[in-house]
Amino acid sequence: GNINAYFSGWPPSDSKDFLGAWGGHSPDFRQIPPTTFLWKLVIDPKRKECVSLDVAPGSANVCVEHILVHPNFNTRKAENVYGTGSNLIGDSSPPCGYVKCKVESGSPYTMLTEGEFNTEVDAYWFGTRYFVTEPIIVPKQDGNPDCEEQAYLLGMVHDAARDRDFLAIFDLQRALREGPIAKVWLKSSVPHGLHGCFASEEDGGKSSVFC
Questions:
Q1: I need a surface site. Which of 2, 28, 90, 206 has the fewest CB within 10 A?
Q2: Strand, coil or helix: 54
Protein backbone atom coordinates (compact mmCIF):
# COMPACT_ATOMS: atom_id res chain seq x y z
CA GLY A 1 0.00 0.00 0.00
CA ASN A 2 0.87 3.67 0.12
CA ILE A 3 3.00 5.37 2.75
CA ASN A 4 1.37 8.25 4.65
CA ALA A 5 3.76 10.76 6.23
CA TYR A 6 2.89 13.83 8.31
CA PHE A 7 5.07 16.88 8.84
CA SER A 8 4.80 20.58 9.62
CA GLY A 9 5.92 23.09 7.06
CA TRP A 10 5.18 26.25 5.09
CA PRO A 11 2.96 26.35 2.02
CA PRO A 12 4.65 26.81 -1.37
CA SER A 13 6.02 30.35 -1.60
CA ASP A 14 8.12 32.45 -3.95
CA SER A 15 9.39 34.54 -1.05
CA LYS A 16 13.18 34.73 -0.80
CA ASP A 17 13.72 36.63 2.43
CA PHE A 18 11.05 35.75 5.03
CA LEU A 19 13.53 33.73 7.14
CA GLY A 20 15.35 36.97 7.85
CA ALA A 21 12.44 37.90 10.13
CA TRP A 22 13.72 35.28 12.61
CA GLY A 23 16.85 37.29 13.39
CA GLY A 24 17.42 39.71 16.25
CA HIS A 25 16.05 39.59 19.79
CA SER A 26 12.89 37.71 18.78
CA PRO A 27 11.04 36.72 15.59
CA ASP A 28 8.96 39.46 14.01
CA PHE A 29 5.81 37.58 13.08
CA ARG A 30 4.51 40.59 11.14
CA GLN A 31 7.30 39.87 8.63
CA ILE A 32 6.79 36.09 8.49
CA PRO A 33 4.14 35.68 5.80
CA PRO A 34 3.73 31.87 5.61
CA THR A 35 1.79 29.97 8.26
CA THR A 36 3.16 26.61 9.36
CA PHE A 37 0.59 23.90 8.65
CA LEU A 38 0.33 20.16 9.28
CA TRP A 39 0.78 18.38 5.93
CA LYS A 40 -0.05 14.86 4.76
CA LEU A 41 2.22 13.35 2.12
CA VAL A 42 1.09 10.14 0.39
CA ILE A 43 3.78 8.15 -1.42
CA ASP A 44 3.39 5.14 -3.70
CA PRO A 45 6.57 3.11 -3.01
CA LYS A 46 6.05 0.76 -5.94
CA ARG A 47 5.73 3.53 -8.49
CA LYS A 48 8.23 5.70 -6.56
CA GLU A 49 6.11 8.80 -6.83
CA CYS A 50 4.12 11.26 -4.75
CA VAL A 51 0.39 10.57 -4.87
CA SER A 52 -0.74 13.69 -3.03
CA LEU A 53 0.43 16.50 -0.75
CA ASP A 54 -2.25 18.42 1.15
CA VAL A 55 -2.90 19.97 4.52
CA ALA A 56 -3.82 17.03 6.76
CA PRO A 57 -7.51 16.21 7.34
CA GLY A 58 -9.07 18.14 10.19
CA SER A 59 -6.18 20.62 10.49
CA ALA A 60 -7.03 23.44 8.08
CA ASN A 61 -5.97 26.86 9.42
CA VAL A 62 -4.09 25.25 12.32
CA CYS A 63 -0.74 26.99 12.80
CA VAL A 64 1.29 24.14 14.32
CA GLU A 65 4.96 23.24 14.80
CA HIS A 66 6.99 20.44 16.38
CA ILE A 67 4.46 17.70 15.69
CA LEU A 68 4.67 14.27 17.30
CA VAL A 69 2.67 11.12 18.00
CA HIS A 70 2.74 8.51 20.75
CA PRO A 71 6.25 6.99 20.45
CA ASN A 72 4.78 3.52 19.86
CA PHE A 73 3.10 4.90 16.73
CA ASN A 74 6.03 6.55 15.00
CA THR A 75 5.89 3.98 12.19
CA ARG A 76 2.25 2.92 12.61
CA LYS A 77 -1.05 4.50 11.65
CA ALA A 78 -1.85 7.11 14.28
CA GLU A 79 -5.11 8.94 14.81
CA ASN A 80 -3.76 11.77 16.96
CA VAL A 81 -1.00 14.21 16.02
CA TYR A 82 0.07 16.71 18.68
CA GLY A 83 2.15 19.86 18.42
CA THR A 84 2.81 23.39 19.61
CA GLY A 85 -0.08 25.57 18.54
CA SER A 86 -0.11 29.25 17.66
CA ASN A 87 -3.73 29.70 16.59
CA LEU A 88 -6.58 28.01 14.71
CA ILE A 89 -7.30 30.80 12.21
CA GLY A 90 -4.39 30.42 9.79
CA ASP A 91 -2.30 33.32 11.10
CA SER A 92 1.44 33.52 11.75
CA SER A 93 1.99 34.01 15.49
CA PRO A 94 4.09 32.70 18.40
CA PRO A 95 3.34 29.26 19.92
CA CYS A 96 1.22 29.70 23.04
CA GLY A 97 -0.53 26.36 23.48
CA TYR A 98 -0.77 22.70 22.48
CA VAL A 99 -3.06 21.18 19.87
CA LYS A 100 -4.33 17.73 18.88
CA CYS A 101 -5.36 17.01 15.30
CA LYS A 102 -7.30 13.86 14.41
CA VAL A 103 -5.71 13.10 11.05
CA GLU A 104 -7.62 9.88 10.37
CA SER A 105 -11.16 10.86 11.35
CA GLY A 106 -10.91 14.61 10.73
CA SER A 107 -12.82 16.28 7.93
CA PRO A 108 -11.21 15.96 4.50
CA TYR A 109 -8.97 18.87 3.70
CA THR A 110 -10.81 22.02 2.73
CA MET A 111 -9.23 25.44 2.73
CA LEU A 112 -11.01 27.56 5.28
CA THR A 113 -11.11 31.23 4.53
CA GLU A 114 -8.40 33.37 6.09
CA GLY A 115 -9.29 34.06 9.70
CA GLU A 116 -11.93 31.32 9.86
CA PHE A 117 -11.74 29.33 13.11
CA ASN A 118 -11.18 25.56 12.96
CA THR A 119 -13.70 24.09 15.40
CA GLU A 120 -12.54 20.47 15.05
CA VAL A 121 -9.20 20.80 16.80
CA ASP A 122 -8.74 20.08 20.50
CA ALA A 123 -6.44 22.78 21.90
CA TYR A 124 -5.35 24.41 25.13
CA TRP A 125 -4.09 28.02 25.27
CA PHE A 126 -2.12 29.25 28.27
CA GLY A 127 -2.93 32.92 27.76
CA THR A 128 -1.23 36.22 27.10
CA ARG A 129 2.58 36.28 27.36
CA TYR A 130 2.90 32.51 27.79
CA PHE A 131 5.09 30.71 25.25
CA VAL A 132 5.41 26.95 24.85
CA THR A 133 8.27 24.75 23.70
CA GLU A 134 8.35 21.42 21.88
CA PRO A 135 6.56 18.75 23.95
CA ILE A 136 7.22 15.05 24.42
CA ILE A 137 4.79 12.18 24.92
CA VAL A 138 5.48 9.70 27.73
CA PRO A 139 3.53 6.40 27.79
CA LYS A 140 1.82 5.63 31.09
CA GLN A 141 3.49 3.05 33.28
CA ASP A 142 1.74 -0.33 32.80
CA GLY A 143 -0.50 1.29 30.20
CA ASN A 144 -1.73 -0.35 27.01
CA PRO A 145 1.07 0.17 24.44
CA ASP A 146 -1.51 -0.01 21.64
CA CYS A 147 -3.61 2.86 23.01
CA GLU A 148 -2.47 6.32 21.91
CA GLU A 149 -4.29 8.06 24.74
CA GLN A 150 -2.67 6.12 27.58
CA ALA A 151 0.16 8.61 27.85
CA TYR A 152 1.11 12.04 29.12
CA LEU A 153 2.13 15.09 27.14
CA LEU A 154 4.90 17.12 28.82
CA GLY A 155 5.96 20.58 27.72
CA MET A 156 7.93 23.51 29.11
CA VAL A 157 6.06 26.82 29.25
CA HIS A 158 7.56 30.28 29.74
CA ASP A 159 5.60 32.88 31.70
CA ALA A 160 7.07 36.10 30.32
CA ALA A 161 5.24 38.30 32.83
CA ARG A 162 6.84 36.47 35.78
CA ASP A 163 10.02 35.46 33.93
CA ARG A 164 9.61 31.89 35.17
CA ASP A 165 9.06 28.53 33.51
CA PHE A 166 7.00 25.52 34.43
CA LEU A 167 6.53 21.99 33.16
CA ALA A 168 2.93 21.42 32.04
CA ILE A 169 1.63 17.85 32.27
CA PHE A 170 -1.44 16.77 30.28
CA ASP A 171 -3.25 13.44 30.64
CA LEU A 172 -4.01 12.39 27.06
CA GLN A 173 -7.01 10.37 28.21
CA ARG A 174 -8.62 13.76 28.83
CA ALA A 175 -9.25 16.52 26.31
CA LEU A 176 -6.40 19.00 25.97
CA ARG A 177 -8.89 21.84 26.39
CA GLU A 178 -9.42 20.71 29.99
CA GLY A 179 -5.92 21.92 30.74
CA PRO A 180 -2.87 20.37 32.40
CA ILE A 181 -3.34 18.08 35.35
CA ALA A 182 -0.22 19.55 36.97
CA LYS A 183 2.28 22.41 36.65
CA VAL A 184 5.80 21.97 38.02
CA TRP A 185 7.20 25.46 38.53
CA LEU A 186 10.92 26.15 38.29
CA LYS A 187 12.66 28.82 40.34
CA SER A 188 13.65 30.79 37.24
CA SER A 189 13.30 30.86 33.48
CA VAL A 190 15.21 28.55 31.14
CA PRO A 191 16.27 29.22 27.54
CA HIS A 192 13.75 28.33 24.87
CA GLY A 193 14.75 24.89 23.62
CA LEU A 194 13.85 22.08 21.26
CA HIS A 195 13.56 18.32 21.67
CA GLY A 196 13.78 16.45 24.93
CA CYS A 197 13.55 13.05 26.59
CA PHE A 198 12.03 11.41 29.62
CA ALA A 199 14.02 9.02 31.82
CA SER A 200 12.41 6.83 34.46
CA GLU A 201 13.82 7.08 37.97
CA GLU A 202 13.15 3.38 38.58
CA ASP A 203 15.97 2.19 36.30
CA GLY A 204 18.36 4.97 37.23
CA GLY A 205 17.66 6.93 34.08
CA LYS A 206 19.16 4.26 31.83
CA SER A 207 16.23 4.23 29.40
CA SER A 208 14.37 7.18 27.91
CA VAL A 209 11.50 8.11 25.65
CA PHE A 210 12.73 10.55 23.05
CA CYS A 211 10.77 13.22 21.22
A1: 206
A2: strand
